Automatic annotation (TrEMBL):
Belongs to the UPF0235 family. One of its GO terms (cellular component) is cytoplasm. Gene3D superfamilies: YggU-like. This is UPF0235 protein HH308_07285. InterPro entries: DUF167, YggU-like_sf. SUPFAM superfamilies: YggU-like.
Length: 77
């Protein structure tokens, strides 16, 4: 198994577009979710959307930084 990778994503909670993963002009990921940014609901939704987008199990995606920020870092792997 390969070493875990940390990726930075911008989160857009309460979005009508969601769930969706888009790539910004600079190559970073933008994740749109319908869940609100309260009680960690958006964070959990982003982890699930990322796992599906990257083709990994949901247990392989973990939030490592930015729990209360729109820019978050997730460990994948």
């Amino acid at each position: 198994m390969s070493d875990p990778t940390v990726i930075a994503v911008t989160v857009k909670p309460n979005s009508r577009k969601g769930p969706l993963v888009a790539t910004a002009d600079d190559g970073t990921l933008i994740v749109y979710v319908r869940e609100p940014a309260t009680e960690g609901k958006a964070n959990k939704a982003v982890a699930l959307v990322l796992a599906k987008h990257l083709g990994v199990s949901k247990s392989s995606v973990a939030l490592v930084a930015g729990a209360t920020s729109r820019i978050k870092r997730f460990r994948v792997g």
